[in-house]
Amino acid sequence: MTGRKIIMDFEVTPTSHLLADYRARGGYDTLARALREMRPEQITKEVTASGILGHGGAAFPAGRKWGVIKLNDEQPHYLCANADEGEPGTFKDRWILENAPHLLLESMLIAAYALQVHHAFVYIRGEFDLPYRRLAAAVEEAYEAGLFGEGILGTGFACDIVIYRGAGSYVCGEASALITSIEGRKGYPRNRPPRLTVRGLYQKPTVINNVETLSNVVAIVRGGGEAFRTVGTAKSPGTQLVSISGHLNKPGVYEVEYGYPLAKFIHEDCGGVLGGAKLKCIVPGGISTKVLTAAEIEHVTYDHVSLTAAGSGVGSGGMVVIAEGTCMVRLLQILLRFYHHESCGQCTPCREGMGWMHRIIDRIVEGRGQPDDIEQLIRISKANDGTTICGMGDAAGYATLGIIAKYRDEFEYYIEHGRSKLGGRIEVETAEALHG
Ligand SMILES: Cc1cc2nc3c(=O)[nH]c(=O)nc-3n(C[C@H](O)[C@H](O)[C@H](O)COP(=O)(O)O)c2cc1C
Ligand code: SF4
Questions:
Q1: Element at 182 (helix H, strand E)
Q2: Are residues 88 and 216 in the same domain?
Q3: Residue with CA closest to ligand 1 atom 29
Q4: What pLDDT sits at residue 425?
Q5: Do the domain assignments include residue 7?
Q6: Exposed/middle/buried for 396, CB within 10 Å: 0-12, 13-18, 19+?
Q7: Substitution site in 78, 82, 346 for ligand 1 pocket (most atoms within 8 Å of beta carbon)
Q8: Reduced to 3 states, what is the DSSP secondary structure of residue 279?
Q9: Alpha-carbon distance 235 to 48, whole Å?
Q10: Which of the ligands is closest to the CA of residue 166?
Q11: Closest C-alpha residue for ligand 1 atom 24
């Protein structure tokens, strides 16, 4: 057991994603109560009181985001669930879309009522097949049951929903790029201000939340914000769906209560490292978070404070476990190939920097590394920090700096000898794990 459950608190069966099963578990009762008994601003108050932090990577307080929306400003507001889930190693929103699509939809309806939204969107990763089909079927069921459209549950509230499928761009998961993509343009991130809650989709106030963040709204409204806070830690209320993969005996998606011991989670709940190998390090929350060595995680608990103090973060909840014997030079090559491929090209430091870093790491791996290559990688990473429109430029730099700081000897050996210090015993599995 990895602590108390909020999202995964039911048994998954072949029919548990369907409306009938969801209703039998009390599904849509919270929506009915919210629409009949609560004012919109009361709901935002509960979400703020819950202290829930965004689960999409940046850990921004959801209540603070919702609080920016002015309810009676006589203009449309929009709500988007971010189901792009493109961060390598991350596949936890997928669990919700496949197994609990109505939990997301009920949560979105409550959020829409709180924010006085009449048109909601789900932006879903283009490569998702089963999650898309399950969600689309759930939307259809919900419309047939009068849960979307006009006069929802016999009240005066109206809300429609559109599922928008992405086309495979990682950057479209970034909130402003997601909006331009829904608008039918190229998915380019844009500078802030103005914030998206002020000028977002179609230039109107827009709330974008991660699928998991939104899926917690039912529990928050059902029990109240204060009750929600009793789960997790003071600064990280609630739980996190962690998708864990790599050199691990029991990979999968686990719901982890914040504050749970990280080493226990990996070694006991997830069955430990494959083949009884020793743990080398982990990527704790998507490849944009810095690696933590086995020694560094020994006393870490799974929450924002503890992971930040250790020098990394919860990120997107996508954890990758890396066994002793894995070549970190090859691992960085895989990451940099990804970032280079995904750079949208708007910002010079990201567009050019990713290309330079990718070429440098390729030549190191090919045995043509040069003495200054490590310093070059560090210089380029630092030049990206804070100089780009979206967080991708920074993230690639953090990942690179994190790996080099902890495994510099492997890079030096590779450059000097033209081959890996470790022989790359399980490189291929690492590549697969990182590409999800
Ligand atoms: C390059 C990039 C990719 C991102 N991809 C995702 C994604 O796939 N899913 C997601 O929820 N957030 C993603 N984000 C974060 C979003 O910009 C945004 O912070 C998030 O959707 C807000 O929801 P939250 O506050 O509930 O976390 C990405 C950010 C960046 C910079
Ligand atoms: S940082 Fe990279 S991905 Fe983000 S907007 Fe700039 S060029 Fe595009």
A1: helix 175-182
A2: yes
A3: 174
A4: 46
A5: no
A6: buried
A7: 82
A8: strand
A9: 13
A10: 1
A11: 54
